[in-house]
Design a protein that fits this description.
A 3-stranded mixed sheet has the order 1-3-2. It contains 7 helices and 3 strands, in the order H-H-E-E-E-H-H-H-H-H. The radius of gyration is 16 Å and the shape is globular. The relative contact order is 0.12. It has one domain. It has about 160 residues and is mainly α. The two termini are about 25 Å apart. The protein has helices at about 5-15, 25-30, 60-80, 90-105, 110, 120-125, 130-150, and strands at about 35-40, 45-50, 50-55.
Length: about 160
């Protein structure tokens, strides 16, 4: 597993999150003692008066809200950068890192590894993510498995 995957596994296990049914905004925000507010605007993380608040756009599906929460969790755990003041290239880079984190946060590798069958539909249904999100996450997972397999082959 890479650094992001290990970090997420350690985080979830330290919070007592070890099964897929525990992967939801309410459960995680409670365990992190993090306020989540649902509103009609874009999802974002804010820091005010010494505490963080996550704002999630509630004009979207539950799957999108979960994916947005995963994205904002990157900013919560890693990021102290205010992208509003950076040039577009750097802001895009930071948001790409948050998107990558969200794939692993919403669909953790250590949980995928426990499944007997892994497909787009299994990921979509079990992890409550959109089809396109599940498709991309499956590509990431299969690529990792192929690289492990090819590195273990000896000629």
């Amino acid at each position: 597993m890479n650094r992001t995957e290990r970090y997420i596994q350690k985080l979830f296990l330290s919070l007592g999150i070890n099964c897929i049914s525990q992967l939801n905004i309410k459960e995680l925000s409670n365990k992190l003692n993090l306020d989540v507010l649902f509103w009609n605007y874009g999802s974002e993380l804010a820091y005010y008066n010494g505490c963080f608040k996550v704002f999630i756009n509630n004009n979207q599906s539950m799957q999108c809200m979960w994916q947005d929460f995963g994205h904002e969790m990157y900013h919560y755990f890693y990021d102290e950068t205010n992208y509003n003041y950076l040039k577009e290239t750097y802001a895009t880079y930071g948001e790409s890192k948050a998107d990558y984190f969200a794939y692993h946060f919403c669909v953790p590798t250590f949980m995928l590894m426990q499944l007997k069958e892994v497909s787009v539909y299994v990921i979509t249904n079990l992890f409550n993510v959109e089809y396109d999100f599940a498709f991309r996450r499956l590509e990431m997972y299969q690529s990792k498995l192929m690289s492990i397999t090819s590195s273990n082959l000896s000629f």
